[in-house]
From TrEMBL:
The chain crosses the membrane at residues 501-518, 524-543. The keyword Nucleotidyltransferase does not apply. GO terms for biological process: regulation of ubiquinone biosynthetic process; ubiquinone biosynthetic process. The active site is at 288 (proton acceptor). HAMAP family: UbiB. It comes from Mangrovibacter phragmitis. NCBIfam families: PRK04750.1, UbiB. It is found in: Cell membrane. This is Probable protein kinase UbiB. Keywords: ATP-binding, Cell inner membrane, Cell membrane, Kinase, Membrane, Nucleotide-binding, Transferase, Transmembrane, Transmembrane helix, Ubiquinone, Ubiquinone biosynthesis. Belongs to the protein kinase superfamily. ADCK protein kinase family. Belongs to the ABC1 family. UbiB subfamily.
Length: 546
C-alpha cells in the first residue's frame, strides 16, 4: 500500500468504528483477532448508539464521500444481500455534495471544447452551478447558434484518481468478506464490486449518457407519456454533456402537482405504462428512475407528460428474458406456481436439474401469503424480489439485467403509489403484458418475422444452387477425410498389434537366453544368440510403433 492508501484506510476504519459498524463482524473463531483488536481501540467508541444499524451505515457512507455513497446506492438495489432494514436505509442515500468552483468548471468546459473561450459557443453562461452531485455538476447557458436554453453537465476535475484509489480499497475489503462471513462466498463480494466499478466508470463517460438520451428520445418521439430533452451531440465529449434545459415540477412534489391541476390517477398509470413500454416494446429502459430524475411538464395538466433526465444508467432484456418475465408475472397473478417454476428452469435462470416440484412448493410457500392482501396493494417489485430470493435457494445465479429491472420497478411503483395511493399496478399492467405475449406468439409475430427475414431470403435465393453444390462437395470431401482417418486408425491398430506381438517374442527370447546362460553354460553361444535375437525383435517392434 502507498502512504496515501494507508491514510485513506485509517480514515475509513475510524469512520466505521465511530459509527459502530464493527457490529457487522460475525462472531466466529476466525474473526476473534479482529474483535479483540476492536476492543483495544477504546479511544474510538461508537458515538451513535441511539441510531439503528442501517442508519449508522448510511451516515458512515455519506461521510466517506462520493464513491462510497454510489456504492451504497448500488448495494440498495441488491436486496438479496441485506435485510430490509439496511436495504431501505441505503436506498435513502443522497449524493448531493458541495459544488466545486464554477470558474474551474468553466475551464473544464473550455478544455473539452479545444481550449476555446466559453463565450465562443454559449451566451449567458452561469458560473454558479444549477445543481451538484458526486460525479458531476450542471451549469446553465444559451446556445449562441440558435438561442436555445441548455444545461452543461461537466465531470468533477480530478475525480478519476480518487475513484480508482477508493475502488482498490473496496476490492481489498471485499476479498476479506468470504473469510469473515459464513455466507460470504454466496454473496460474491468481488463480483459485486466489479459490477459497481463498471457502472461507475460508465457514468464517468458522458458520451455514453448522451447516446442513451438520444436513443430514449427517439423511442418516445411525439409520445404524450414521456418527453426526453434533446441532446446537442456536437458539443458533447467524455467530460461534458450539453442538452436542452427543461422546466417541470419534480415528481416528488405532490403538492405542486395538485396545485397545477394534474390528473394524478392518469399520471400514476402513465408511469407504469412508460416503464412497461420501455422494457417490452423497446428493450431499452432508463434504469435510474429515482424521483430526482423525473419531472412533470407544467403544460396540459389534464393530460400529464413525464420528463426524464440523466440517462447514465440504462438496462435491456433480450427477447427470451422479456417473454419469460411477462409469462412469470401472468402466471404469478394467476397463482400458477408450477408454471412459474417451469419458466425459471426453461429460461436457464436456475440449473436444469432443479427439482420442479420442490421449487414450486418453495414459491407457493413464499408467495401465497401475498394474496392475503387486496390485489391493488400487491407490490410488483416485492413479487420479483420474493421470486428471485426463492430461486437463489435453488442456485439461481445473479442476473444483472434483472437486478436493474427490479430496482427500476421498485422506483416506478413507489412513485406511482406516492402520486395516487389507490393505483392498481396489476390492473394497469396486465392488459399490456397479455397483449404483448399474444403479439409475440400469434399470427402477427409470424408475419413480422417473415417481413424481417424476407430481405435476407431474397438476397440468398440466387445463391441456393451454388450453396447446394458447395454443401454436396464439402460432404464428399468430409466423407473422404473420414475414410482416410478410418484407414489410418485401422493401420495404427494393426501396427500396434504387430508391435505387441514382437515385444512378446523378444521378451520370450531374452528370458530364455538368460535362463539358459545361468543353467546350461555348456551350450556355448546359443544363449547369447537368443538374447541378441530378442533385442533385435524388440527393436523391430519399436520401429513398427513409429
Amino acid at each position: 500500500m502507498t502512504p496515501g492508501e494507508i491514510r485513506r484506510l485509517y480514515f475509513i476504519i475510524r469512520t466505521f468504528l465511530t459509527y459502530g459498524l464493527d457490529e457487522l463482524i460475525p462472531k466466529m473463531r476466525i474473526t476473534l483477532p479482529l474483535r479483540l483488536w476492536r476492543r483495544l481501540l477504546f479511544w474510538l467508541p461508537n458515538r451513535h448508539k441511539d441510531l439503528s444499524l442501517g442508519e449508522r451505515l448510511r451516515l458512515a457512507l455519506q461521510e466517506l464521500g462520493p464513491v462510497w455513497i454510489k456504492f451504497g446506492q448500488m448495494l440498495s438495489t441488491r436486496r438479496d444481500l441485506f435485510p430490509p432494514a439496511i436495504a431501505d436505509q441505503l436506498a435513502l442515500l443522497q449524493d448531493r455534495v458541495a459544488p466545486f468552483d464554477g470558474h474551474l468548471a468553466q475551464q473544464q468546459i473550455e478544455k473539452a471544447m479545444g481550449d476555446i473561450p466559453v463565450e465562443t459557443w454559449f451566451d449567458d453562461f452561469a458560473v454558479e452551478p444549477l445543481a451538484s452531485a458526486s460525479i458531476a455538476q450542471v451549469h446553465t447557458a444559451r446556445l449562441k447558434d440558435n438561442g436555445k436554453e441548455v444545461v452543461i453537465k461537466v465531470i468533477r476535475p480530478d475525480i478519476l484518481p480518487v475513484i480508482k484509489a477508493d475502488i482498490r480499497l473496496i476490492y481489498r475489503l471485499a476479498r476479506w468478506v468470504p473469510r469473515l462471513m459464513p455466507d460470504g462466498r454466496r454473496l460474491r463480494p468481488t463480483e459485486v464490486v466489479r459490477e459497481y466499478e463498471k457502472t461507475l466508470m460508465d457514468e464517468l463517460n458522458l458520451l455514453r449518457e448522451a447516446a442513451n438520451g438520444i436513443q430514449l428520445r427517439r423511442n418516445f418521439e411525439n409520445s404524450p407519456m414521456l418527453y426526453v430533452p434533446e441532446v446537442y451531440s456536437d458539443y458533447c465529449s467524455e467530460n461534458m454533456l450539453v442538452m436542452e434545459r427543461i422546466y417541470g415540477i419534480p415528481v416528488s412534489d405532490v403538492a405542486a402537482l395538485e396545485k397545477n391541476g394534474t390528473n394524478m390517477k392518469l399520471l400514476a398509470e402513465r408511469g407504469v405504462q412508460v416503464f412497461f413500454t420501455q422494457v417490452f416494446r423497446d428493450s431499452f429502459f432508463h434504469a435510474d428512475m429515482h424521483p430526482g430524475n423525473i419531472f412533470v411538464s407544467y403544460e396540459h395538466p389534464e393530460n400529464p407528460q413525464y420528463i426524464g433526465i440523466d440517462c447514465g444508467i440504462v438496462g435491456s432484456l433480450n427477447k427470451d428474458d422479456k417473454r419469460y418475465l411477462a409469462e412469470n408475472f401472468i402466471a404469478f397473478f394467476n397463482r400458477d406456481y408450477r408454471k412459474v417454476a417451469e419458466l425459471h428452469v426453461d429460461s436457464g435462470w436456475v440449473p436444469p436439474d432443479t427439482n420442479v416440484e420442490e421449487f414450486e412448493f418453495a414459491i407457493r410457500t413464499v408467495c401465497e401469503p401475498i394474496f392475503e392482501k387486496p390485489l391493488a396493494e400487491i407490490s410488483f417489485g416485492h413479487v420479483l424480489l420474493n421470486l428471485f430470493n426463492t430461486a437463489r435457494r435453488f442456485n439461481m445465479e445473479v442476473q444483472p439485467q434483472l437486478v436493474l429491472l427490479q430496482k427500476t420497478l421498485l422506483y416506478v411503483e413507489g412513485v406511482g403509489r406516492q402520486l395516487y395511493p389507490q393505483l392498481d399496478l396489476w390492473k394497469t399492467a396486465k392488459p399490456f403484458l397479455e397483449s404483448w405475449i399474444k403479439d409475440q406468439v400469434g399470427i402477427p409475430a409470424l408475419v413480422r418475422a417473415f417481413k424481417e427475414k424476407a430481405p435476407f431470403w431474397v438476397e440468398k435465393m440466387p445463391e441456393l444452387p451454388e450453396l447446394f453444390y458447395e454443401s454436396l462437395r464439402q460432404g464428399r470431401h468430409l466423407q473422404h477425410s473420414m475414410d482416410k482417418i478410418s484407414r489410418e486408425l485401422h493401420d495404427n491398430r494393426v501396427r500396434q498389434g504387430q508391435s505387441r506381438y514382437l515385444f512378446g517374442i523378444g521378451a520370450t527370447l531374452i528370458i530364455s537366453g538368460t535362463l539358459l546362460l545361468i543353467n546350461r553354460p555348456d551350450w556355448g553361444m546359443m544363449p547369447a544368440w537368443l538374447m541378441v535375437g530378442g533385442i533385435a525383435t524388440w527393436l523391430v517392434g519399436w520401429w513398427r510403433t513409429t
